[in-house]
Amino acid sequence: DIYHLELTGLALEREESDLYDVLQRALESRIFSENRRQFQVEAPARLPLARVDELRIERAFSNVLQSALALSPPGAPIKLRLEGRSAEIRVYVHAQGVAVAQSEVERLFDPLYQFNEDSTTSGLGLGLYLSRELIERHGGRLWAECAPSKGTMFTLALPTTDGAGVVTLPARAAEPVEASPLPETRSTGYSVQKRQPKTIMVI
């Protein structure tokens, strides 16, 4: 995979997709079927569509979720939230366990990086590296923010079908970053998938 991403490029088979559905498929895969940790997913009733290669983005989601589990103590909830904006869709993955030192945050995406807290995080960087490559090939961004006692927040941002691209990333905050509240009003200039607001527990 690294060879194809770095040297030969990657052909994407894009289609208009609801990222909520793609995320649900990642959570329902066998990778997480025997894991007793609990995922908590929050999604708005209206979410913009994204034009993505669903298999590639599903894999990117899966890699980030596995990394979040590796940074969390057994049984700790992993909180996921999807948020639609005017030009992008953000997926927040909050691991409430181990917080990586701020100086180590970017190294999380190094394919050779191994977190030293315990052996369960060995190889952590490879999955995140691949996820970032896949997200960036879609015109998006993936980054992490960490804070003591608050854990690690991964944020995936992908452009909507009508978005020209992802907006510039905000400066890193010294304090923990939490998903910002959904806006009360929203532009109607893009397609959306309608559904009732819900919180879904996947065990």
Mean pLDDT: 76
Helix percent reads 10-25%
Task: Give me the secondary-structure category.
Answer: alpha+beta
pLDDT below 50 for ≥5 consecutive residues: which ranges? 164-194
Please report the number of helical segments: 4
Q: What fraction of the residues are assigned to beta strands by DSSP? A: 25-35%
Strands side by side in the biggest sheet? 7-8-6-5-2-10
Shape: globular
The major sheet is characterized as: 6 strands, mixed
**CA-CA gap between termini:** 29 Å
Pattern of helices and strands: HEHEEEHEEHEEEE
Number of strand elements: 10
Q: What is the radius of gyration computed over CA atoms, rounded to a whole number of angstroms?
A: 16 Å
Descriptive account of the structure:
The protein is of the alpha+beta class. It has helices at residues 2-8, 19-27, 54-70, 124-137, and strands spanning 15-17, 39-43, 46-48, 50-52, 78-84, 88-95, 141-147, 151-159, 192-194, 198-202. The strands form three sheets. Strands 7-8-6-5-2-10 form a six-stranded mixed sheet. A two-stranded antiparallel sheet has the order 1-4. β5 and β6 (88-95) form a beta hairpin. The two termini are 29 Å apart. Mean pLDDT is 76; it is low at 164-194.
